[in-house]
């Protein structure tokens, strides 16, 4: 589980250690977590593109869902076959499928079907802290659409809040400018360690 700290504490700790503050450090502050939670709550905890909610994981990092009707029927068919039952009617005439219509067994969701919610910046301003953007500059996206947007679109980068002058930067080849690697969402929300979440090569502090 990630450990969040106040931004001022981060500044003090980095100063005492003589270390550089990376973008990934900023994403582990209370300020960003609070801003992120506010945006996701505003968007009703759904991706604004696909409308999916985040997958809820248990303490073992697994997720489950209720079975579909087809899965229930397949389960019952397997049970009847195993018990060598030829008829779907019981002795008293009750239909097995109706009898087990409320049958519940959890179906594990494969990892590649997990949905993780990210907060996307619709534009960037050089040296601006990630939580200092107005709310209308931030939207909730699932990790798949977040990656797709950065892959297919050039996100504007401006020099200041006036947004009068933009600059062209080179996106990170590893994450395609999203700052995340979906396959590693289970750790540090999938932050890209090639660019440390900075998204653009010119902004990366080595």
UniProtKB/TrEMBL annotation:
Highest taxon in the source lineage: Bacteria
Protein name: Uncharacterized protein
Organism per entry: Emticicia agri
Lineage of the organism: Bacteria, Pseudomonadati, Bacteroidota, Cytophagia, Cytophagales
């Amino acid at each position: 589980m990630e450990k969040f700290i106040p931004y001022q504490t981060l500044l003090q700790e980095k100063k005492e250690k003589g270390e550089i503050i990376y973008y990934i450090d900023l994403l582990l502050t209370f300020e960003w977590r609070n801003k992120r939670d506010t945006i996701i709550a505003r968007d009703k905890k759904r991706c604004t593109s696909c409308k999916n909610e985040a997958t809820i994981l248990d303490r073992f990092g697994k997720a489950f869902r209720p079975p579909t009707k087809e899965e229930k029927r397949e389960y019952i068919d397997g049970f009847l076959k195993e018990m060598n039952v030829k008829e779907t009617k019981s002795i008293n005439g009750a239909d097995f499928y109706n009898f087990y219509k409320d049958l519940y067994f959890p179906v594990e969701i494969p990892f590649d079907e997990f949905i993780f919610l990210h907060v996307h910046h619709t534009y960037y301003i050089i040296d601006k802290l990630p939580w200092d953007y107005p709310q209308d500059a931030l939207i909730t996206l699932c990790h798949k659409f977040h990656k797709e947007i950065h892959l297919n679109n050039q996100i504007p980068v401006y020099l200041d809040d006036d947004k009068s002058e933009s600059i062209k930067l080179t996106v990170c080849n590893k994450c395609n400018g999203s700052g995340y690697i979906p396959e590693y969402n289970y750790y540090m929300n999938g932050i890209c360690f090639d660019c440390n979440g900075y998204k653009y090569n010119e902004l990366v502090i080595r």
